[in-house]
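LOG
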Amino acid sequence: MKTYRTLLEHVTSTTGPARTVLDPATGGLIGSAPQQGVAELEAAIERAVAAQPAWAALSHEERGVVLCRVADAIDASSEALAELLSREQGKPLNGPNARVEVGACSAWLRATAAMSLPVEVVIDDGESYAELHYRPIGLIGVISPWNFPMMIAIGQIAPALRMGNAVVAKPSEYTTLSGLALVSVMNEVLPAGVLGVVAGAGDVGAALSTHPAFGKIMFTGSTGTGRRIIEASAGNITRLTLELGGNDAGIVLPDVDPQAIAHDLFWGAFINTGQTCAALKRLYVHADVYDAVCDALVAVAAATPMGIGLDEANVLGPLQNRMQWNVVDRLVEAAKVGGGRVLVGGDPDRGAVGNFYPTTLVADIDPQNPLVIEEQFGPALPIVRYTDLDEAIALANGLDVGLGASVWSADTSAARSVAARIQAGTVWINSHGGVHPMIPFGGVKGSGYGLACGVAGLKSVALPQVINS
């Protein structure tokens, strides 16, 4: 078990190139993150390639036992991991935030270890017999983002290891210490070399994307970076799973009870202070309940405290970096100029220390306003009034993204009918953004391709092999 101080000392750079890491809530110094390069990437690849055959030689059950022990190690250091995550990423300890993210890491490992992927008999008719097996790919590269630097990394690392692969991970340069800390704790248990990590900037990511040693790359991040990875990896015909940008729509039907759905609507949009790929980012509400839904959301916003993450009272935090703060600020200002009515928020303290942007709800906004059609990735929700359901569905489908969406209704059957018409990888009914290790997750259109989670996720990090006898 590590304390926060011992964990930080273990991952903070003391020699070589380093980057100063500041707390996004206070501006205070956290530590120094190592800045590694292509040489360190090559060394990690060499160790992983050497370690992978022995790891793959273990049975699924044996690898599952190891993954459960890794989960135990994460649990033993969970409070230290959560504190580091809160300080570096900004998310509060409490609420659906740092402690929940760390807890999800160990839960994901155990669920992945317990999944069954038996040999599938595809034909046995007395004349032909064929089985479908799934074999390890070999080496998998994982490039993870700064919004959920531990949970998203685990969601990719856990199935890759379970299927007998070795992994080299690259955490975001914005949350390097969190990524290094998670791997450090995991490597207390894993065989040496099976899981490597390289902390670097774009040059490391570019080298990873073009390296022929990787049989697959898993990336979560922007659509623009995803396109560059596709281009960079094409020469090696590298397999890819890409979870890219989203601008998730929610459609509220006229039969809802606004008070009953307000809490879940709010957290669908503002979990992780809106810094979630599959957050609710544009809300279409029928005119019959529009004002009541707006009022109910304002009430929830007013009762939801934002502040420094280590304060146990807070459940919303700062934006992780100033670049993202500027994006949110620009889009909210565009909403104001375009005639949007700010119900709450929209008035940041531009001279304050920290990257706090107030919880913001904007009503009566044009559906083509930049705050609606661009991904804000922060605590600002545009609320669009509609009267015609077909028009609302057309607006929901009108952008070149399709990660998630939601439909809100007292009639589940009606909601499912609407959901079937929405172009998104996942459509939630009366909730938004929830993920589960057993439920496949992935996007369509510009939100990427490939599936994570569940048995489909295991298959995505393996090579299908048919044995035909």
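LOG (cont.) second protein
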Amino acid sequence: MLAHLLRLSRERLRVGAPFAVASVVAALLAFWTIAFFARHQQFVVQLCVSGVIIALSIVRSDERQASPGAGDRMPAWAAVSARFLMIPLVALLGALIGRVVHAHAALGFALIAAPLVAAIWVRRFGPLWARLGSLWSFPFVAALVTPTAALAAGAGVWWGALAALIAVAWGSVLGWLVGAGTAREDPSRAGLARAAPSAQRPAPSPSSGSRMALHLAISLAAAILLGWWLLSEHLAWFVLTAFVVNSGNRGRGDVVYKGIQRLVGAGAGTVVATLLGTAFAPGDSNALVALFVILGLGAVLRTMSYAWWAAAMTGGLALLYDYLGQGGTEVLGQRLLAILLGGLIAIVASCFVAPVRSIDVVRRRTAELLALGREVLTGDRSAPAYAGLAAETRAATARIEQLAPPFHALRIVTFGRVPAGRRTADLIDRGVALGTGLQRFVAAPSRELGGRLGGELRALRESLVALRRD
């Protein structure tokens, strides 16, 4: 098992490293381009922070869209057009809300939370709205992480739009370059965008997006209220942690697993960066160099565990606060408390308010793979659409594999003594093995391989039926 996890980590690092490096390069280019144009402005730090977050998010979005399990995609021209039209316009609003955050923190963060929740809720209307929601959330995430000392400078709204435009340009260019190179190395990735969806594929439940939006809304509202009551000067840490822990979850098991990762990573990153920040005086540009080194390491190691990225982001934010004169070891305990409470709020909301069971998500995605498996083994190989089943199967397999980490972790820490968790982890492993074999069958069909895959398909179906009794 340990050897398998190490091999999987190396594979994730190999696949994700190009996008990780591209995201940091895009962030650096955006930072220095914005700093050059706004070098005589007092609000240059605010603009640079916003640009870095947007550039990182753009490349990360391209990485998700290039992954096999991303699902339906917008045409490339539509995605790029939406970026250049929407993000600068939304950045205008984000700049205005930033002023509100400085004057009335609780109200400002509530205004930031509303569009972030809406970005999740609109997923129920299909992949187009899901992509648009993701795009309009980037400037609000940037406003969320911008320190109040930078917001106090009061950047003009048109400067905010210019910074966003620069960040979108660099992020899009770097994301496109890496995506094109990845497609050349692995042509099946490019085929994913052209593959027609299977008629037998179960449609995603619209209620899942609504429940995720509900979880995020409750988490952010509770974080704002509790943070405003307990530690109003560190309210941003409450809200940011609640958002990070609750974003992109795939069920309550996934939330707990990622929540623990993010809490541990964020806490460790904050401690290390706060202690490191004591080596730099406020305004020392060497702190910014250290910030980008931390972000670079976190981006590369993120492919192995999200804990590294959580550590890098919160550590970088702590260094930025120190650079602006808002840090020091005296606030370390308060920051850690805010991170802990914000993360716990998000976990509790996802686990006890209209929870999405991770086992149900595994069942649904396994049923999708079974439907594709029947089509692969019994379909007409001479039909033009048959070759596209390889890309569909790869996507379905990747979507199952996305669910593996929490169940693998549960199986390891409990030594397999939790029957439902062990059986679910085994089901995922069988599904991934079946999906890999189906892809080989589409590329090179043979009676021997087909017979073996037919047996694996029946065994997987029986395991799925047994799991439904739990």
